[in-house]
Structure formats: C-alpha cells, structure tokens
Amino acid sequence: MSVRLEDGEGDVVQWQETTDKGIDIELKTEKIPEIGATLEFSVRAINHAGYFETVSANLFVPGSM
Does the pLDDT at position 8 exceed 70? Predict the structure, then answer.
C-alpha cells in the first residue's frame, strides 16, 4: 500500500506491508498543503502463488486552513 499526492510530488506514505486484512494510516499534516490535496492510494494484494491485483483510488483531504 502506498499513498502519494495526486500531482505526483513525492510519497506521503511509502510502501507498507502487512499480512493483516486492514491497515491504519496516519497522515502527517505537514505533507498536506493548506488548501488541501487529492491523495492517490494504491493497494496491491499478493497471494501465496505470486498472483497479484492492484487497486487504486483517490481521496480529497482538506488542509488545515
């Protein structure tokens, strides 16, 4: 799983790995512009045989104006 700003500037959360069915993400507010930003989330699931699927989604996060 990774998270980055939609405009492609740097990673907000670099790849995080887990064997759990869920993961909590704490976003650092200093990485979010004051006007807010759209974040791109990407999650890749890999099974024991090595087959994988990647799902992506966007989420608008308001800034701290």
Answer: no
